[in-house]
Amino acid sequence: MKIQFKILNICIFLTFCNFDIHSTDLININQFSYVFAFSGLNLRVRPDTTSEKKITIPYLSRVKINSFQENWIILDNKIGRWTNVNFEGVDGWVFSGYLMIDNPNNLLDKAWLKILNKNQKIYNKSSFKPSIKSLKIKSSIGKLAIISFPGTGLEPGLNSMIDSVWYFDGMSWEPLKSNSKNQYSEDLNDSYSNKSTVLSFINDDWIPDLIVTDSCCGSNYKTEIYLSENLNFQFKKMKTLDNYYLSNIYWTNLCGKNYFKFLSVLDDSSVKVSFDCKSKSLIFK
Hints:
About 10% of the residues lie in helices and about 45% in strands. It has 1 helix and 21 strands. The strands form 6 sheets. The chain has a 5-stranded antiparallel β-sheet, with no helix packed on it. It has a 4-stranded antiparallel β-sheet with strand order 10-11-12-13, with helices on one face. The two termini are about 35 Å apart.
């Protein structure tokens, strides 16, 4: 059996908006933040992707926050704003979508220990032997982060990729947990299938929401939409879309003309999901 992978092509319109920094507990001025872009983060002369590059700040580096631009933008499928930082005595502008509130190694070390402990029996039986180097920080907003780790797949030599959601409690990172059946809870299982998780803003607050897609074998897809319920980062399952996967995100602002497009794996049909701020409910078209 050959597993066919759908490519998630997220097209997000560039947008500007105001943001309540306290809603996601992001780094503030005169505090430090860390680079999680594996290839490094460009430090530019001006807050613009076409501006001259001073240096590339290496992965895992710590930078001090000097100031922020007021408006927020979306670049590389990540939300952030142009941020003036100091790195080893050099000031310049970086995109904050590649900064996180804690040293990435702290998250990677914790994640690897828990993932290994959860799946040790499966790994022992598999010819595929993952390691901490197999883990990747996919995205981070405030106290939330997505870690991608490889699964053993259904066949030898054919592996899967699994996204997991992590929460920073101020001291350490933990997998996002809930005791409610209607809320998202991370189990870290190597389920042999692919699991893709996207952090985005769907409803009318600045707490990130989750879109989670499980897929296997080229045609079995299930996508679940979770909306944030409070500042404690509890996510309630609002909708399940069987045989659909996230294709595009069109996002302009909170309560703007936003929609999330899902494509069917069975035919050419699609579903557009948006959030109505008046009724505070998801709309499906």
